[in-house]
Predict the structure.
Amino acid sequence: MRMVDVIEKKRNGQELSKAEIDFLIEGYTNRSIPDYQMSAFAMAVFFQGMTKDERVYLTEAMVKSGDQIDLSAIEGIKVDKHSTGGVGDTTTLVLAPLVAALGVPVAKMSGRGLGHTGGTIDKLESVPGFHVEITNDEFLRLVNTNKIAVIGQSANLTPADKKLYALRDVTATVDSIPLIASSIMSKKIAAGADAIVLDVKTGSGAFMKSLEDAEELAKAMVDIGNGVGRNTKAIISDMSQPLGFAIGNALEVKEAIDTLQGKGPADLHELSLVLGSHMVTLAGKAASLEEARAMLEEVMRNGKALEAFKTFLASQGGDASVVDDPSKLPTAKYLIEVPAKAGGYVSAITAEEIGVAAMMLGAGRLTKESPIDLAVGIVLHKKVGDSVQAGEALVTIHSNNEQVAEVMEKVYGAYQIVSEKVTPPTLIYKEIH
Ligand code: URA
Ligand code: CA
């Protein structure tokens, strides 16, 4: 087989066979196929797309390029959740203990990652002592006993995707639904879950700005998941404004604790219940979404969700007393309110701008090596649809630096206030099976 023929075939819009896709991914991983040929191939896919079968073959080939996590030692149906990312998305911290409290095994492999705030692991590390440096055996044992554990991402997960994603980044081929869908799904599938719930975000703060694109991506990922034998469902949720109130690592842990007690922000609370209901039904613990939701509400009410969170933190070295006393989490030196310049109704909060503001405070990383300040971030007091009076606080900035003029400017740039009443945005647009 010759790579040039595979590129030509795709360029001409013909469907590739499994053997051809295996050839190109194996060759790219072992360096017998150079970047320039892979670039030409990615561009051909960008214009010609890929069929359902091709997407499944591509995903499977990328899964096989590296380690595949074996979770078979864990009893029960392992359900993973993935979000396409947004600003202040605290749902993983809520969902993991919430569904674990109902006996759904959560074997989470997570990363630190770049972005406005840290990844799930960074957030959890704001709990003093908590760590993810546990052995594979310890990880499996903890999931079997507590139904929940988090381990750092294996360095050799889907190396083909790692290389291809970096190449796409510099060849203007990131924005291709088949390539995005197979990239995300390959990582989820290699991580070993039996079933997957996807939260595809749409809006200004999301990767997919329009609902149509988000829907197309969600369908593509659901088809791939089901195509490789992992039961997969997706919802499309709003990211036109940040989720919840808190954006920042320790601040989001505190927000997750509130939500596990049933007193979190309305949007985070609702999204957690919707995603959680899908996880619980996929795990076979409830016969319907309605039943699952009632069970989730019950463990919020009776304290079992919070108990699961405490056990999880303590089992990985964390000081679980932060759950009852969140003031033990890292706190910032300066709390600075940003007052509204005029009264009216909030009509928009550009998620992206708030994310950048949190980043400027030190909540996120610019490069893989940058340090991260777990204490800092932004807490919103007003969301889209809320009324506000002149002088009332829009947000509180949690900073370790007294000089926050630039951050304040970002916040003012993000908020739009109008004089007419505003309807809050829809939180959940669609469910895709
Ligand atoms: N996230 C990924 O992991 N892969 C993509 O291709 C795009 C976003
Ligand atoms: Ca949040």
Observations:
- DSSP finds 16 helices and 13 strands in the chain.
- Residues 146 and 312 are 7 Å apart (CA to CA).
